[in-house]
């Protein structure tokens, strides 16, 4: 959580410093560019003034001498051309390129180029300025082009930027350091609350520091302590209710079944026999629902404990999924106990015999397969049931895939699979509790695994249990 608090603070600091440094950096580059432009603009104008007598007299020797001295002084080259673009005088190795030719052509049309693009460390090393040479003040008789060396200006801009970046980094470090101390003080009670909440969820003793951090969080700690006492009382009442309900429901159901079994049958009243049979079917359904509810409650309890980062509650002696639950099995061995049930439903089985390691408690894995095959036997009779174990990714995960070629579900119904007591409309009249796949999901959670449900390539339902492999 500290990182989540520090990150926005640091990002805000970065944005604030950047918002200051970018305009300052732009101002440095623009100022240095303007200085260079003024200096070289004045030099360009002097060359234009000295070129005018050369055009009038036709003698360019003095102009050539001036250009040579200019190049020796500044290390930059210049060229003077006539109206046809032919060279009149030049200094240094003035090589014309398309960009330079375009600038000179613009000057010959009376459009001077005296502005420089803003100089940055990654700008071009040279830039070209050009101005027309006019004798009557209107018609260009030629043009002067000056190739400027921008490297010194680039180094100056880079040095200026490095300075402000160093200042910005120092500011960011100061902001980060202050943020670390601030968040540590603010989040100290939050960490204490987190540890206490996990301990409460796992029925362990917890220690809560209610005198650390800001006043608001200290009040929150005291409120949490009061709430924890209420939650512990509610959990105790809930656990007691589940245990009492299981006994109170099972005993009357058993007594009713004994009474039903003791009723006389075959006395010549078909209506009475049918009623007894209907009552027995309802009892079977009720007993099945009670058993599934208890199984779901147990799976949810274990899944919640596993989700908190611990293998179970303090009073749960079962092994953690990541400790002793690495089993090596095959799809054929998993489906073997259920082949007869599937055969009774006219379902053919295709099972892979390759063994793979699965980090899943063996009893839970067998129960998952039992629940899925039970659904297939009820809802996909006469189809083909396929089960396989396969690796995923870099071998750190194993996927148990179970699919059938039955009628399946509508696309809009697939996302609803796994909801408690949910059943598809076409299955409403068939026996079932609507808890099977909900239990599968909770058993998977208890073993740090995931469940994915979609449409099988054969058309039915496909259920994938994605678990660890090592």
Automatic annotation (TrEMBL):
List, alphabetically, the PANTHER family matched: SENSOR PROTEIN CREC
Q: What is the protein's given name?
A: histidine kinase
- Where do transmembrane segments lie in this chain? 159-182
Identify the residues that the record assigns to the HAMP domain, covering every copy. Answer: 184-236
InterPro entries to which the protein is assigned, alphabetical: 2C_sensor_his_kinase (IPR050980), HAMP_dom (IPR003660), HATPase_C_sf (IPR036890), HATPase_dom (IPR003594), His_kinase_dom (IPR005467), HisK_dim/P_dom (IPR003661), HisK_dim/P_sf (IPR036097)
* Enzyme Commission number(s) of this protein: 2.7.13.3
Q: Which residues form the Histidine kinase domain?
A: 244-470
Q: Which SMART domains does the record match to this protein?
A: HAMP, HATPase_c, HisKA
Give the catalysed reaction(s), semicolon-separated: ATP + protein L-histidine = ADP + protein N-phospho-L-histidine
